[in-house]
Amino acid sequence: MPQINKSILVVDDEEQTLAYLCRILERENYKVFSTTKGKEVAEIALNNKPDAIILDIILPDIDGGEVASILSKNPATANIPIIFLTGILKKEEAGKTGKRFVLAKPITKENLLEMLKKILSE
Q: What is the CATH number of the domain that holds 77?
């Protein structure tokens, strides 16, 4: 079981998806921060120093790639691992590049927790 001190920032503009992801993480004893707005991510990350960020790529105000770019320019947030969520990729195309990971939607609880466990133990 994860330690309660591990925190995750979840970003998704779909309220149902956001609630689903937050529920999964909270049940696993992660401390969870969440937002539906990409423009709020940098501020939340700076204030709360999450251990990882789960970030939807398609957001209405600013896309996930741009959010990741903003985070990478600030030394305080540059090394936070990011799991991008997308409905565009096929599951086989999901993978890893540096501190950037990709999970294809629909996400299963098992896939999400397995990836987080791997990321947080690195």
A: 3.40.50.2300
